Every structure is written in structure tokens, then in C-alpha cells.
Write the C-alpha cells for this entry.
Amino acid sequence: MHKLRTRHRGRILTAVTEWLTTRQAAEHIQRSTRFVLNAARSGELAGYQTTAPHGSWRFKLSDVDGWQERG
């Protein structure tokens, strides 16, 4: 389990999670959601689309951290 700090309506929340939404992944690495989606679609960042072709994406926190370290 991992702790993730995120903002919601101006408040900082701490959640225990291993899966991140696109927005959470972008906030975690301080990049845009478009940047994260482009990386996922190109195969640079491991991601899992819930329903193809227009479903939402989910990312493992460990994959996002590993990708950022390699980047």
C-alpha cells in the first residue's frame, strides 16, 4: 500500500492506494494529464484502459514512479 497526497477542493487529502487515475498520476509527477495520456498511448508508461477505445485509464503508482525515474 502507498500513500498519495492529492488536492480536492483546495484541501490536501492523503489516501492509501496503489492505482491512480490519469489526473492523480499527472499530479504525482507534476505534469499535465495530456502528457501522461500521451505516454500511456505510446507505450512509454504502463497503463490500463478500463474500456477501449474511450475508457478511462488507471496507472499503478509503482509504474509511474519507475517511469519517472527512468525518464
Summary: The radius of gyration is 12 Å. The CA atoms of residues 37 and 43 lie 10 Å apart.
